[in-house]
Design brief:
The chain is of the alpha+beta class and 391 residues long. The protein has nine helices and 18 strands. It folds into two domains: 84 residues, no CATH class; 243 residues, Beta-lactamase, CATH 3.40.710. It has a five-stranded antiparallel β-sheet with strand order 4-3-11-10-9, sandwiched between helices. Strands 14-13-16 form a three-stranded mixed β-sheet, with no helix packed on it. The longest helix is centred in the C-terminal third of the chain and has 17 residues.
């Protein structure tokens, strides 16, 4: 007679690492310039400006012209979203004040159309709807100009040093030529935004549906971030474009959290991304790259950063028996708790892991046992990263 059950195993990994680490290329201004030149040769990216930041510590792992003010295109919407999340309840009803401008990516909002704040925010961040950005700005502040004051104040609150936002969507309208920011500012803004769980959920969402409204049929929203796409999304997008054979999609990169794309003719292709690699979260910004190059740039920067600034330690190997768990009233008195895959943790390169403890949560199973789940959790300092398994 087979016995199966549901089992939860907790592996606590405690890694004591230095928080006073500074990248080698940040020692002095002159040395910084020399070492960055060498770094750029090792990571030949297409973007004119870029940065990689450790999301936990704020340490800069790579930078290329990261402090020069540039057009951000639709990655502007990161700060627009952050202000909207501060000011609005997600279930709040919003009545659009005027027909949306049809320029760029839009969902064609209409005067008098009623949405929830959540629907407009998802439209803002997934298909990058410019008209949704304006509708949110007017609802919150009464006008785009007043909303931009809020954007700039919020940016400074996040730690931005050189940003000047002049509209909520990033379009390079005549008169908005001073709508500029830096790769560094976008990284610190995104670092703050990722502390908001609603923001994290939105930017990691692949698709979202707005039901039929009082002015329009239902809308399907697809995230412009190709790192999140799956096979079904690719086929859906191909059905909507004139040259599907030219559609390029980056290879799968494990741990991508999401965030935001942006493109205009003058800003080029931009991307602000976040990725979680074995419990280490990195934020990357690439500005004025190419349509496909922004993804290649980002992946190259993530690979470079992990390889050069972190050591990966295997704390439990795939298939390793961690403990025998007692089964109460079972024909089989004990079952093995087995790691589904390697449990790993990143620490700053050169630092030793001290005080590591690997243990299972103490509990008892009762027959019949149906399923087993193994959970491995890790994070830098005291980390948690989950995996599930059926036995």
């Amino acid at each position: 007679m087979r016995t199966q059950n549901r089992l939860l195993i907790l592996i606590m990994i405690i890694a004591i690492a230095s928080t006073l680490w500074v990248p080698a290329f940040a020692v002095s201004k002159d040395k910084n310039e020399i070492n960055n030149a060498a770094t750029h040769a090792l990571v030949p990216i297409e973007a004119e400006a870029a940065i990689v930041m450790d999301a936990e510590t704020g340490q800069i792992l790579f930078e290329k012209d990261a402090y020069t003010m540039r057009e951000p295109a639709s990655v502007t919407k990161i700060i627009t979203c952050l202000v909207a999340l501060d000011e609005l309840d997600m279930e709040q009803k919003i009545t659009v004040k005027a027909d949306g401008n049809p320029t760029g990516n839009v969902i064609n909002v209409k005067a008098g159309e009623v949405f929830t704040a959540e629907q407009l925010i998802y439209a803002l961040m997934l298909p990058s709807a410019n008209d949704a950005a304006v509708a949110l700005a007017v609802e919150i502040a009464g006008s785009e100009d007043e909303f931009c004051k809020m954007m700039n104040a919020k940016a400074k609150e996040c730690g931005a040093k050189s940003s000047n936002f002049m509209n909520p969507n990033g379009l390079n309208w005549p008169g908005d030529e001073s709508h500029l920011t830096t790769a560094y500012d976008l990284a610190v803004i995104t670092r703050e935004a990722l502390k908001n769980e609603t923001f994290r959920k939105i930017v990691s969402t692949l698709e979202y549906k707005i039901p039929k409204t009082n002015k329009s049929e239902a809308r399907k929203l697809v995230n412009t971030n190709k790192f999140l796409w799956n096979a079904d999304t690719v086929e859906y997008v191909k059905s909507k474009i004139t040259k599907p054979e030219e559609l390029w999609v980056p290879k799968y990169y494990e741990g991508v959290v999401g965030v935001k794309t942006g493109t205009t003719s003058t800003a080029g292709a931009c991307f602000v991304g976040a990725v979680d690699i074995h419990g280490t979260e990195l934020i990357s910004v690439v500005l004025n790259s190419e349509e496909d190059g922004r993804y290649k740039d980002s992946a190259a920067l993530w690979d470079y950063s992990v390889k050069n600034f972190y050591d990966t330690h295997v704390m439990a190997k795939k298939g390793e028996v961690l403990e025998n768990i007692r089964v109460k009233r079972g024909e089989v008195r004990k079952v093995e708790a087995v790691a589904e895959e390697d449990a790993v943790i990143n620490v700053i390169k050169g630092e030793k892991i001290k005080g590591v403890k690997v243990k299972t949560e103490k509990f008892e199973l009762k027959a019949p046992v149906k399923k087993a789940i193994s959970s491995v959790q890790s994070e830098s300092m005291m980390a948690m990263r989950s995996y599930e398994k059926e036995i």
